Amino acid sequence: MKKSIVVIVVSVVATVLMLFLLGSIWGNKADQAMINTVPEIKELDPRSSEWGKYFPRQYDSYMATQKSDDIKDVLKKDPNLVVLWAGYGFSKDYNEPRGHFYMLEDNINTLRTGAPVDENTGPMPTACWTCKSPDVPRLMKEKGDLEFFTGKWARWGDEIVNPVGCADCHDHKTMQLSVKRDFLARALDAEGSEPFEKATHQDMRTLVCVQCHAEYYFKKTEWEDPDGKQHTAAVVTFPWDNGLSVEDIEQYYDERKFSDWTHKLSKAPMLKAQHPGYETFKTGIHGQNNLACADCHMPYVREGSVKYSDHKIGSPLGNISNTCLTCHGESEEQFKQIVARKLERKEGLAASATDILAKAHFEAAKAWELGATEAEMEPALMDIRHGQWRWDFAVAAHGGFFHAPEETLRVLGTAIDKGHEARLKLRIILAKYGAAEYEGPVFSSKEEAQELIGLQMEKLVDEKITFLNTLREKWIQNAATSGKNIYDPKTEVKEFKASYRDKK
Known about the structure:
Elements: H1 2-36, H2 48-52, H3 56-63, H4 74-77, H5 80-84, H6 103-109, H7 135-143, H8 145-148, H9 182-191, H10 201-210, E1 217-224, E2 230-237, H11 246-255, E3 261-262, E4 269-270, H12 277-281, H13 285-288, H14 293-297, E5 300-303, E6 306-309, H15 332-370, H16 374-396, H17 400-403, H18 405-432, H19 446-452, H20 457-469, H21 471-481
Antiparallel strand pairs: 1-2, 3-4, 5-6
């Protein structure tokens, strides 16, 4: 009797296991059939949901980037930044970057892009769209690079309607990684150490990211259209001709006498670092050992027999066991403590730099007020320019404290040195004009700092909200009804968020 019960139990278990095995085989076959399906995606289709029909796992993980939706106000954290960027858009509004899902909407919502009333108004050029949407490569192909980079930002408002997505990085037929912005290839060839045509697949797992995560400026470029009309394009350009270091790029800009803006207080010819993640990464241990961005920010995931890259791109620290700890031997808690110490050191030096540079801007403004000459001021202003550039290069390289901690601290150290040199020169000038004891104004909030530099924030916010409720709504309607099949309601942001929204 006992023997028969054992036989029955064994038979039931075996049957269940067989059913699980058959289910797994059938599931694997279904997965494989989906993988082997030849995609029918039109070239440069900006709608990620169209790609997601063939690659649902990748698409679902990409859509999960919308969970990173918190607004973190950088100006509130360090009001000195308002002074550092006086006369430039970042003094109005600057938040930490959110997930790829929000890249386009955050560009539209920020006060930096202004409040245009039509396609020919507003403070920013069309180049400000460049890294925000797969509609950009589509327009570059349709219009040509020079045409795309000509005019005001609002010109393409109803054409650029999808956030960063599949078409930014993949070929529509083969799904191979593909760089869609030619200015990257030109910059790599100009720099020379890694010509674009020699890029390997591992290189491409970084280069598709470098299209956007790198330092750039808008190079004024004259051109003539087929009708003989002259235009000036603001072409996105990577300043790598001399190399990738902060000093190399500083030299590039100095040689061309380029500045992003003239500081409202100090009158210094300023540089704004964008997000030199690639340049910083290349100096660190990960870059030197040929790791790619995707190794840490898009780790492989296995579901049954299917292995794919996780497209929920974000900090590796959110998935340490599947990213950092595949190479590092510490426990998760130990590793977090190591990273926290690196970040603390970086933030400590960065705060020192902003304090010193903000004081230098106020002292320069006072020297001008007292009658200092351009010849007297030029050396100090160049120190301010170089000090702030180096600070900005270090902090704007998101994750630089982890990608290359030694280089990040070194660059911040030189920023502090330059700031001190500027202040020493300014003290001599102030003493000459009888103001040796001058102390700049004291402020403790971003609102106080914005008032000090003359920003009319209530007016700026009113204008922005009017734009969002009028022209912005018209852009969405035009895109949805144009018949171009570019509008994707699945990636339209439904909940408006901004650091200034609580003011209204």
